[in-house]
Amino acid sequence: MKNCGKCGVLLELSSFKDSSLASGYGNYCNACKKINNRKSRNRHSKSDTVSKHPLNKSKISGLRGPSFTNTELSSYEIGKSYEIEYTNLQNKKSKRIVYIESISQNSNSFRAYCHSKEYVLTFRADRSKILRIY
Ligand SMILES: [Zn+2]
Q1: Cα of 68 to ligand 1 centre, how many Å?
Q2: Which of 61, 83, 90, 102 is least enclosed by beta carbons within 10 angstroms?
Q3: The CATH number of domain 73-133, selected from 3.40.50.300, 3.90.230.10, 2.30.30.140, 2.40.50.140
């Protein structure tokens, strides 16, 4: 079993099979890869007047993102500690005090030392909300 880096869903390894990769398995599940391919193709063919409209943009992000309010990745600073509310893949919320060790813009996530687990974990910014800055 493996967590998809895109949708975060726990899936069988067979869902990650990618013969074009040396490891034989990708980080994103095949369903996400298909969606990505389709989207990038559509983006070029559709007229860009629609995407420039700010109202449409917010509608799209509202549909794609989770239903709770998160804190933007840019609000986190390496070397600082935060109390965050983290919503896990089962949509369970928990409060954690974390110390930011690194930030990955590419995956919209940060690696942080979690004081309650006493372990460095990766947190997705779209699932985290800052409650307090230390
Ligand atoms: Zn996926």
Answers
A1: 20
A2: 90
A3: 2.30.30.140
Using one digit for the tens of pLDDT, what is the confidence trace for 71-94?
A: 999 999 999 999 999 998 899 999
**Å from CA of 94 to ligand 1 middle:** 23
Range 36-45 average pLDDT: 62
User: Looking at the DSSP assignment, which residues form a beta bridge with residue 110?
Assistant: 103, 123
Beta carbons of 70 and 127 less than 8 angstroms apart:
yes
What pLDDT, on a 0 to 100 scale, did the predictor assign at position 117?
Answer: 87
CA distance 64 to 57: 11
Question: 39 CA to middle of ligand 1, Å?
Answer: 15
The total of other beta-carbon atoms located within 10 Å of residue 18's CB is 14
